[in-house]
Specification:
By secondary structure, the chain is mainly alpha-helical. It has helices at about 5-15, 35-45, 60-65, 80-90, 105-120, 130-135, 150-165, 180-195, 205-215, 225-235, 260-270, 280-290, 310-315, 345-350, 370-385, 410-425, 435-445, 530-540; strands spanning about 300, 320-325, 355-360, 395-400, 430-435, 450-455, 525, 545. It has an eight-stranded mixed beta sheet with strand order 1-2-3-4-5-6-8-7.
Length: about 550
């Protein structure tokens, strides 16, 4: 339904700036969207003397707004900037006042104060600080939206209140949805808490953050900032299967209590971490990044290198029992990575088992569409038959780049094609997904992928945050901004209810995956898709989870 105030904003901005070089007109449909916000932003840039105009409120625009000075009641240095503020407020759902009034008046100030209250910021008479104006000109919501929770919103407001003035922080959404922006804000808050300089807080889980977190284990008797940060990460990782059903949830707090401790114990158990019932480094890492603690022991590895008898023996001696291998040849880097004649015998003789991966480059969005997925599904079937993999084997189809949310429609279309391709060959094999957490979450939900192979390709965004969920076939609780995983110290050997890794016919029969309605959860992981030697040396782990209601975001921050 069209909103007359939004329509008025669209008509005004197009009429005012339509002939300005570089300006892109927005639709005049009365519906708020990025095109409208970009148009208002470009109008603001023109008033600030910025050229060329760009559909982005970046550092240059922020600096120019800062140079304007304080925008408060009575400000009238630029009538069009006042109109842009009023129209932006209307597009955000607040009453911007009379657009015919040339100066910033009490009506506009009251709307700004209300928006600030919703953001979690203190009221100050409706002053429009540069970061506040930037927040007006995006599509973030500041009330709880469908699918959001008040609990997550309270954390979003807390982050805004305490950190919005910090150099590298922006005002984040307070919509109750765990998203990339929320995860990045949390990581920046952690960086500041461990002593990283304000200008260097970039939201990444880098060496400085890791070192600082190692010095801040939280547990019984702990209180204050680090408990708040840790419990926020716990809330973002809800639910834990089997704990406190149906919610499997904990709460945001500044004081360690039995509820948080119980949730942490369940999370550690599910994730196959040492059960310390404390917020130790390994648990912090598992909550914050998809790879978790890269130094924890693992028993599975995927590799693009041939398993020779000596390599297989070395892997077994170093504690590995399972290896992922590629069943097709295509590789952007060139060279051979596919299973070779006789290699399966080497794997089995070494005491290892194998699970298949299909990757045909998979490094750009252009490769992901239904027809390609259908072709890959059929080819993967033929290759799996050629190598002798058992009926019911899960084949992991790769999305081996840091896909963004905007990429997901094409990626989902590709996996629907994969599913159809496998079905056209008699449904002998089951498709799984290998990619970032948001990719795995949405492919699981939309294409019923049997299992997810969650990569550790990101370092600070929500697909780098871990959130285990129920294994229910597909989940009504799934959200594209949540991210579950379950790293395990013992890999496939820790699986009590799910399928063992698949093998070729020349080994004993392996159980097929449980029915899709199963409520049981199975977990496992492997390491980097690079050389097995590197996997052995570093233990850099990836995670395979059961068919869980995974919640993730994507993207490197």
């Amino acid at each position: 339904m069209a909103d007359e105030k939004v329509l008025a904003a669209q008509k005004w901005v197009n009429a005012t700036y339509g002939r300005v070089s570089g300006y892109v007109k927005c639709p005049e449909d009365g519906k708020t969207g990025w095109a409208t916000m970009y148009a208002l932003t470009m109008g603001l840039q023109h008033e600030l003397g910025i050229s060329p105009l760009v559909a982005n409120f970046g550092d240059g625009t922020l600096a120019k707004v800062t140079a304007l000075g304080t925008i408060g009641i009575g400000w009238k240095k630029n009538t069009n900037i006042v109109k842009i503020i009023r129209h932006a407020l209307f597009c955000k759902g607040y009453w911007g006042g009379d657009t015919a009034v040339a100066e910033f008046d009490p009506d506009a100030a009251a709307a700004v104060d209300k928006m600030k209250e919703n953001m979690g910021l203190p009221k100050d008479g409706g002053v429009v600080q540069p970061k506040v104006l930037k927040a007006m000109l995006n599509m973030d919501a500041y009330i709880t939206v469908a699918g959001g929770t008040d609990k997550i919103r309270s954390i979003q407001q807390w982050l805004n209140k305490n950190y919005w003035t910090k150099k590298t922080f922006s005002i984040g959404p307070t919509d109750g949805i765990y998203s990339r922006d929320v995860q990045q804000s949390l990581m920046k808050a952690i960086q500041l808490a461990v002593g990283i300089a304000e200008a260097d807080a970039n939201g990444n889980f880098g060496p400085g953050a890791q070192s600082g977190i190692k010095a801040h284990t939280v547990g019984p008797g702990s209180s204050g900032l680090f408990v708040q940060l840790f419990s926020a990460a716990c809330v973002f990782n809800e639910p834990v299967p089997g704990y406190g059903e149906p919610d499997a949830a904990t709460h945001f707090t500044d004081s360690w209590d039995a509820d948080v401790e119980g949730w942490v114990k369940a999370f550690q158990t599910f994730s196959q971490l040492p059960v310390t019932s404390k917020g130790d480094y390994t648990t912090w890492a598992q909550l914050l990044v998809s790879m978790g603690d890269p130094d924890r022991p693992v028993t599975a590895s995927d590799t693009a290198y041939t398993i020779t008898p000596s390599r297989g023996a070395k892997m077994y001696a170093d504690g590995y029992r399972y290896v992922g291998r590629y069943i097709n040849e295509a590789s952007a880097g060139g060279g051979s990575k596919m299973l070779e004649p006789g290699e399966l015998d080497n794997i089995f003789k070494a005491g290892l088992r194998v699970f298949p991966i299909f990757q045909d480059n998979g490094r750009s969005l252009s490769e992901y569409y239904w027809g390609n997925g259908y072709k890959h599904g059929q080819f993967a079937h033929d290759q799996a038959v050629h190598f002798g993999f058992n009926r019911g084997t899960v084949i992991y189809f790769a999305v081996d780049y840091d896909a963004t949310q905007e990429d997901m429609p094409q990626i989902l279309d590709y996996f629907r094609g994969v599913s159809s391709g496998l079905a056209s060959k008699g449904k002998r094999y089951v498709h799984g997904v290998y990619g970032s957490r948001n990719v795995c979450a949405q492919v699981t939900k939309e294409s019923y992928a049997a299992y997810s192979f969650v990569s550790g390709m990101s370092w600070g965004s929500p697909e780098t945050s871990a959130s285990p969920c129920r294994r229910t076939g597909h989940s009504s609780r799934s959200r594209n901004t949540r991210s579950p995983t379950a790293a395990t110290r013992s890999g496939w050997t820790a699986m009590r209810t799910g399928p063992a890794p698949t093998t070729a016919r020349r080994t004993s029969t392996v159980p097929c995956p449980p029915p899709r309605t199963s409520s049981r959860t199975s977990t496992s992981f492997t390491t980097s898709p690079r050389a097995t030697e590197r996997a052995i040396r570093t233990g850099w782990s990836r995670t395979i989870t059961g068919r869980s209601a995974m919640r993730g975001t994507n993207g490197r921050t």
